[in-house]
Specification:
Helix content is about 45%, strand content about 15%. It has 3 domains: about 90 residues, Response regulator (Rossmann fold); about 130 residues, Response regulator (Rossmann fold, 3-Layer(aba) Sandwich), CATH 3.40.50.2300; about 160 residues, Alpha-Beta Plaits. By secondary structure, it is α/β, with parallel strands linked by helices. Helix 3 links the parallel strand 2 and strand 3. The strands form 3 sheets. The chain has a 5-stranded parallel sheet with strand order 5-4-6-7-8, with helices on both faces. Strands 10-11-9-12-13 form a 5-stranded mixed sheet, sandwiched between helices.
């Protein structure tokens, strides 16, 4: 415990333990089941009567099978039971309980309450947990101030002044965000009616606290809701990061071939379904091997990054910029005519020629292909046509744009 940053204290019997518990404040209590003057369950039952120890975690350590102690131990107020012979598991549980109990939260709470006395108690509690509080006496004003980007929890009394009740606030917020994990709602009421609580849970609250508020209970429920929400956000962020890593080229940040396989079919399907124009531009940087040989691969990487940034800045929201591999890059341009694609390719050609990344002169050969309206698209064929146009551009001296209009495949029902 000392190595984990906590300050441990040891008592050899129940009498000594109770004396220390009455005079000192502890954040975690570990009790052996077998004690010289009583048993751990009886000691737990006694310490739960002390002020300030209603919500402190209590871990019962025993050599017996814990199943035989469950009913009596948990009824006395034990938080968890651990076999004493499994020391590593014991240490893990002790540290976990201590960290959960002492950890400071972070985040912002939207709190709705028109009682000054209750507000003072709750705001003090929330701030002691490390949370910032936006307090409103009226639910309608709280609804106007609500921002899902900043509020990690909404706490509302059900009966507040104003036209909008706490129940109405719950209904409005849950319509905005149906996911209870993304937006946890905690209701507070002095009307402790079971049927009313059921109705509130059906409306979408995550948890309920009865008045008068028990500080330890409220702290535990608030901690659980905020922690669950923020852990979910962390998992979502990690998933997004993994997705971006799988779909993008690590050097340039452009999409990679894997993402092309996933997204390209959707783009071509949309063009077929709605008979939309679609253009492809393939770019091959000229003499790139010579750049690597003369200036080194790091300089070559800087050239690729600079050109990729140029492509990304030129993209509309619907455009799709890809690194095909090596020095070959590509733009897929939905709703873009051949003339517009040729114009954009020429603008990019000029921009690359004047870029000079890392002081290196670089140019590109461009191939443009186009799917006219009324034709059945094959994106792979469009890419191949643009690639062939790149070869033609290189054969004609490089640093130029060559276009290739794909021949339409007319469906059989339209022939004749």
């Amino acid at each position: 415990m000392t190595g984990a940053g906590h300050v441990p204290a040891v008592a050899c019997n129940a009498a000594d333990a109770m004396q220390r518990l009455r005079s000192e404040n502890f954040g975690l209590v570990c009790i052996a089941y077998a004690l010289p003057d009583t048993d751990g369950i009886s000691l737990t039952r006694e310490l739960r009567t002390l002020p300030g120890y209603r919500d402190v975690p209590v871990l019962l350590m025993t050599s017996q099978q814990p199943e035989s102690l469950h009913h009596e131990a948990f009824g006395a107020g034990v938080t968890d039971i651990c076999i004493r012979t499994g020391m590593q598991e014991l240490f893990k549980r002790v540290l976990n309980l201590a960290e959960r109990h002492s950890a400071t939260l972070h985040g912002r709470v939207l709190y709705v309450e028109d009682s000054r006395t209750v507000t003072r108690v709750m705001v003090q509690l929330l701030e002691s947990l490390g949370l910032s509080v936006d307090h409103f006496a009226r639910a309608d004003r709280a609804l106007e101030a609500f921002d899902e980007r900043y509020h990690d929890l909404v706490i509302s009394d059900l009966l507040v002044e104003g036209e909008l009740s706490g129940v109405g606030l719950v209904r409005e917020l849950r319509q905005r965000q149906p996911d209870p994990v993304r937006l946890p709602l905690l209701a507070i009421s002095g009307l402790d009616d079971a049927a009313r609580r059921v109705e509130l849970f059906r409306l979408g609250i995550n948890d309920f606290i009865s008045k008068p508020v028990v500080r330890e209970e409220a702290a535990a429920r608030i901690r659980n809701l905020v922690t669950q929400k923020q852990l979910f956000e962390q998992v979502q962020q990690q998933r997004e990061q993994l997705y971006q890593m799988a779909m993008t080229d690590p050097l340039t940040g452009l999409f990679n071939r894997h993402s092309l396989d996933k997204v390209g079919s959707k783009i071509s399907a949309a063009a077929n379904r709605h008979d939309l124009s679609l253009s492809v531009i393939v770019i091959d940087l000229d003499h790139f091997k010579a750049i690597n040989d003369q200036h080194g691969h790091l300089a070559g990487d800087r050239v690729l990054v600079s050109v990729a940034d140029l492509l990304r800045k030129s993209c509309r929201e619907e455009d799709f910029a890809v690194r095909l591999g090596g020095e070959e890059l590509m733009l897929i341009l939905p709703r873009c005519s051949l003339g517009n694609a040729e114009r954009r390719a020429e603008e990019l050609r000029q921009a690359i020629a004047s870029l000079e990344p890392a002081g290196i002169s670089v140019t590109g050969s461009f191939g443009v292909s186009y799917r006219p309206k009324g034709s059945m698209i094959d994106l792979e064929s469009l890419i191949n046509d643009a690639d062939q146009a790149v070869y033609a551009a290189k054969a004609s001296g490089r640093n130029t744009v060559v276009s290739s209009v794909w021949q339409a495949q007319i469906p059989k029902q339209q022939q004749g």
